[in-house]
Amino acid sequence: MLTATRPPLPIISSRKLAFPPKFKIPRQVWVSNMDTVEEEKLGLIDLHPEVFAERPRLDIIHENVRWQQLYRHVSYAHTKMSYEVRGGGRKPRPQKGSGRSRHGSIRSPIWVGGGVVHGPRSPKSYFYMLGFNARLNGLRSTLSAKLAQDDLQIVESLDIPTDDPKYLEALVEERGWGPSVLFVDDHDIMPLNITAASDAYGHYNLMPVYGLNVFSMLKHTTLVMTLSAVERLEERILFHLNRNDAAEATAKYKLSSV
Amino acid sequence: MASVIARSIIMKQHSGAHRLSFATSIKIKSCYSSYAASPKEKSPENYTRYHEVSSENWKFVERLRPHLLVPSYPTDRNYASDWIPPSDTPPNLPYFVKRTKNFMVPVYLNFEEVRNARKITIIRHIEGDIWALEQAIKSHLENVTKKPVVSRVHEVAMHIKFRGDYVNEVKKWLMNAGF
C-alpha cells in the first residue's frame, strides 16, 4: 500500500475569503488527499456562503439544464410544401362540366400525397442564450445543492501516484464517492496519471473550472474540486456578484459580439 | 499610400514615357496582417523618445478610471438624501432583507400589465421567514394608509408584491428596521 510522507497535519488550516460575508457564516469542508486510497483529511477550509450556501432555486437549475440541451439542438425534420412535391403542375380536370369538385393541382394540401402546409422546415435551430444572471445563479444553486447533499469533495490536488485505473476506482469506492465523479481543476492540462487512469472509465471525468456547468454537475454524482479550482471559482462568481459594470455583462447577447 | 509612392517613383524613372508600367517596376511588399511578411520591430532608438513627467500625478488618471468593483460608501458623514447605510449588526428578526450590491434597498415599482396603470411594489432579496415579513409590512402599510392592502408572497423566488405604490413607505420601514 502506498503511504505518503507528509508534514504534520493540518496542512491547510485557514482560507481568507474574498468579499467577506457580513452576516452569513462560511461553510466548512474537509480537504482530502489523493495520494492514498484511504482518505486522509489534510485540513478544514471555509467556503463562501454566497457561492456554496445559497438557497437552491430548482426552477433556475431546470432553466439551465434545458438551455444546455437545447441551445445546440438543430432539428432536421423537413416536409415538402405544395410547390416542392413532385408533380401537380397541371389542372387535373376542367373547371366545369365533369360534375366533380374543382381543383387546380393534385399536390394541394387537401389532396392525399399533397404538400404539408405548416410542417417542419429544416434546418431549424433552437439556439438561444439564457440570461447572464440565470446562468450565474444556476451555478450557485447547483454548487449549494451539491454541498448540502454531501456530494462536493475538496482535494488538495489531482496528483495520484500511479496511472493504474484500478487505483482510481479503489479510491472512489473506498470513500463512497458515488458511481460517477467529476474532477475539477484550475488548469486545463491535468496531471498525466489521473488522465490515464480516468481514461479507462466513462464515468470519471476531468474538467477545468472554466468548463463547470450545471448539466455536468447534475450528471455526475460527486463533484471533486481542487483547492485552486475552488479559489478560482469563488473569485469569478464573487466578482460577477460585486462588479460595477453589470449592465455590460448582463446585456442582451448579440451574435455579432466578438 | 504605397501605391502613390510607387507611382511617383515610376514617374521619376520613366520621365519621358507616356505609359506607366507598374507591374514590371518596383514591387512594394508590405503585408501587415501577416506576421511573416510584416516589417519586424526595431530597437527603441529608432522610435520616438518618451520621458516620464511625474508618477505622483498618475493618481489623477486613476481616479478617472472606472471602478472594477463597487466601491464602499463613506461612513464618516451625514447624507442629504433619504438614504441611510445598513446597520452593522443584523436586526434581531426572523427575516433579513439584503441590500443590493450598490447598497440600495431592494424595493421596486413594477408595471406588470401592458396598457394598464396597475402598480405593484416588489420587495426582493428576502431571506428567512418571508411570511412574518409580509405580515409586518402589511400591517404597517394598513396603519399608514387606513386601507386594506393586497399582497402576494412568492416562496420560491423569495419576493413579496403589494398592489399599489408603497415604495417609499416600504423603503423607510426597512431602513428604520436596520436592513
From TrEMBL, chain A:
SUPFAM superfamilies: Ribosomal protein L4. GO terms for molecular function: structural constituent of ribosome. Its main location: mitochondrion. The keyword Ribosomal protein applies. Residues 83-107 are annotated as: Disordered. It is found in: Mitochondrion. The keyword Mitochondrion applies. InterPro entries: Ribosomal_uL4 (IPR002136), Ribosomal_uL4-like (IPR013005), Ribosomal_uL4_dom_sf (IPR023574). GO terms for cellular component: mitochondrial inner membrane; ribonucleoprotein complex; ribosome. This is Large ribosomal subunit protein uL4m.
From TrEMBL, chain B:
InterPro entries: Ribosomal_mL49. One of its GO terms (molecular function) is structural constituent of ribosome. It comes from the Eukaryota. Keywords: Mitochondrion, Ribonucleoprotein, Ribosomal protein. Pfam families: Img2. GO terms for biological process: translation. It is found in: Mitochondrion. One of its GO terms (cellular component) is mitochondrial large ribosomal subunit. Belongs to the mitochondrion-specific ribosomal protein mL49 family. This is Large ribosomal subunit protein mL49. The lineage of its organism: Eukaryota, Metazoa, Ecdysozoa, Arthropoda, Crustacea.
